[in-house]
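Quick one: structure for this chain?
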Amino acid sequence: MGIKRFKPTTPGVRHAALCDFKELTKHSPEKSLLTPLKKSGGRNNNGRVTSRHRGGGHKRMYRIIDFKRNRIDDPATVIGIEYDPNRSSRIALIEYQSDKTKSYILAPLELKVGAIVISSNAERSEISVGNALPLSKIPLGTAVHNIELRPGKGGQIVRSAGTSSQLLGKEGGLAIIRMPSGEMRKIPIECRATVGQLSNMEHGTQSIGKAGRNRWLGIRGQSRGVVMNPIDHPHGGGEGKTPQGNPHPVTPWGKPTKGYKTRAKRKYSDQFIIKRRK
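Got it. Here's what it folds into:
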């Protein structure tokens, strides 16, 4: 696993720094775990664009990931580490020993082909990379990922490449974890989490190299407001190169932006947040 650089034979590869994919052991997905993925182009169910600068991109199939890990005390063998176009971390193909059923899970950093992973509720469960346990059974200081927010709902947070949370304490029916952002929050102690840090740590250090590679990912180019006309954006207009003028930067529809906090003043989950993110 590392970053690959290229000889500057073209402008597109001169500054490109891309993943070398050396950690992958399987290059074709498991067909039984694929399902079609329809592109939205950033549009909602009324056909209106609600997320701008999206569209095009390479065709993908969705890999069905087991975020719940609810096959308790049923060991599984890792048979491959694969690329997933729908997420930044790698995924692992596992095969359960009892009935040879295959499943995808998020691949932690140290997980190797042939390793045994298990999801358990036992008091003295093994704390090894890839095992899924309730937070109540995980020792303090352990790095975890794919954490549930409600028992049985499946992992919802800490799922992107290279991330992990640290279990800091337990009090009453709640566990205290430090999120990758630095936020400290409480989570019900019955919620499950997977041990270890997620794979593909170098994801954040990649350099796309050219605009076309973003188009392959379904990300379209965008124009700055200051280069538009006043009819198109509040920052537009003026003679020559003109700054935005507006002391409070806004969206094309006049809502504050660039650091403006949109979180509700009294949100139901405030009681679970001990310390805000950095």
